[in-house]
């Protein structure tokens, strides 16, 4: 359909872009808190098993579907002559759309904190929670107001994304990742050295290297499973889009292994930065996860460490690069679909779609503190509930759409397109894939059962699993 289809300019460019998609807020602010809850080293071990046995085969599957079909997430199934499975792509692209609405706003808050630490760190230190709430439209007197600060920074963040996407796959996405990802690694190492050399950091280090099986429950295992999917960007069909820009001679299993390894190493290093730093400054009972922890509690960490202001700026810059490269992958997957499916122009599509997602994201930000905007949710324990809109949006994508799309991909690859076709796609140009038997079993049986377990259990028990 498309002879002039974009391609990555180099192998390194693709690997950095795919790793950039995977390495995001999930690695840096979700993983450390989860690792702490799941018993440190024990969680890391369980997580590693999830990445190796489920995450990697699914990533390989998405990349193979993408490269074989040479199309966007929806067109991929039609090009492989199974149009009836296009719903998997639709779930992926709609999920990516909803995630981008809020991911881009959180990216904006991160940008606000880069600015905040650079310019007014003492104000943050004086009242970390007040500073966070003021960004989101909640005043000290309890009055709410329009969160224009958060929204202004979210607009800036979205403009950065749009500029990169408009420049195209090679000239925009690849080029940006070639700068952003090395910068991210350098900052990560600087922060790691700072954290582990803090007096009192040893206890945190010991915790991360210890095995406490008492803290492990079935929920821990499911949490590690959900976390690994989110972290590897699986189940949004994004890797179908990124795979479709890959030349046929590329070795997919090797690339998959590399991307999974990079993503996991960054998550583990983030754990080794945050846990020891919190142990050394605030104490073990202060470890948390999510936005409140990343924006509020960490202020105490930076305040009490020597050179904390500089490390604060570096930390939020790290988050910023991570968020940008992930958000870019989400938007690319949507833009690739819209431009190919409707033959729309890339520039106008990008501008419009970013604008609409930014507007919807404003509702997300407003529902965080300023206004009582509600969504609707159901689980068997609590029945129908009306959570804050921001929570409902995350529930919808994390608990429902990501597992649903991932399940669709592996049922498609395991039982319809068949592992033999994926293997034939992988084994081109003399590439040998030694693990094909294991791969087939994982994709046909193990992955679908595990994903069904996530889907059902999260709806039955109401637990957050991603
Ligand atoms: N993998 C990203 C993270 O860990 O933050 C988030 C993400 C990006 C999820 C792209 C899903 C996705 F399609």
Describe this structure in words.
The chain has 466 residues and is an all-alpha fold. Helices cover 75% and strands 1% of the residues. It has helices at 11-22, 25-37, 41-69, 75-79, 86-126, 128-135, 148-166, 169-196, 201-208, 218-232, 238-244, 252-281, 290-304, 308-342, 346-368, 389-416, 419-426, 436-461, and strands at 377-379, 383-385. Strands 1-2 form a two-stranded antiparallel sheet. Strand 1 (377-379) and strand 2 (383-385) form a beta hairpin. It starts with 10 loop residues before the first helix and ends in a 5-residue tail after the last helix. The model has no long low-confidence stretch (mean pLDDT 92). Residues 21-22, 24-27, 96, 99, 230-231, 233, 236, 238, 326, 329-330 line the site of 4-fluoro-L-phenylalanine. 4-fluoro-L-phenylalanine binds at residues 21-22, 24-27, 96, 99, 230-231, 233, 236, 238, 326, 329-330.
Task: Supply the key terms.
Hydantoin permease, two-stranded antiparallel sheet, 466 residues, binds 4-fluoro-L-phenylalanine, single chain, globular, mainly alpha, 2 strands
Overall morphology: globular
Q: What is the tally of helical segments?
A: 18
Radius of gyration: 21 Å
The average pLDDT score comes to 92
Q: Tell me how many strands there are.
A: 2
Number of domains: 1
The ordered string of helix (H) and strand (E) elements is HHHHHHHHHHHHHHHEEHHH
Quick summary:
By secondary structure, the chain is an all-alpha fold. The protein has helices at 11-22, 25-37, 41-69, 75-79, 86-126, 128-135, 148-166, 169-196, 201-208, 218-232, 238-244, 252-281, 290-304, 308-342, 346-368, 389-416, 419-426, 436-461, and strands at 377-379, 383-385.
